[in-house]
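REQUEST FORM: STRUCTURE PREDICTION
Request ID: SP-0412
Submitted by: Lab K.M.
Chain count: 1
Length (residues): 145
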Amino acid sequence: MIRNLENKDKENWAKLYNDYAHFYKVPMNTKVLDTLWGWIQDENHDVNGICYELEGKIVGIAHYRTMPRPIKGQYIGFLDDLFVEPDFRGQKIAQKLISHLKSLSKVNNWNGIRWITHSSNENAKKLYDKIANNTGFQLYELKRN
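STATUS: Completed
RESULT:
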């Protein structure tokens, strides 16, 4: 079952998000977790969270938001984070979460969904290449210092 993340989910969500950060070799701490959780729970903030629940346990999470696409004069959905617990991979949970976001396109008046993944994430890319178009764009990041 796919549903919005709720206050009762924080502990289970935090475990999954820590695993997600570990996968991408990003240090994680309570301050970051609390900030992100606050954003997700704040109806006035643009970061949203959904989960895939199986037998009363959250086994997959996704964070998304609305993003303007100036060159088209439209909005799109942007999938920031997607993670499925390793023991539950191969059950099309990631695909179901993405399909749910696609269904939100009409509700939110988005012209599509975009996301990025690391070039080394071969398993995810196998799925993404089946269900979406690779835009060919490279991601750059300029740090503030």
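NOTES: The chain has a mean pLDDT of 95.
Reviewed by: T.R.
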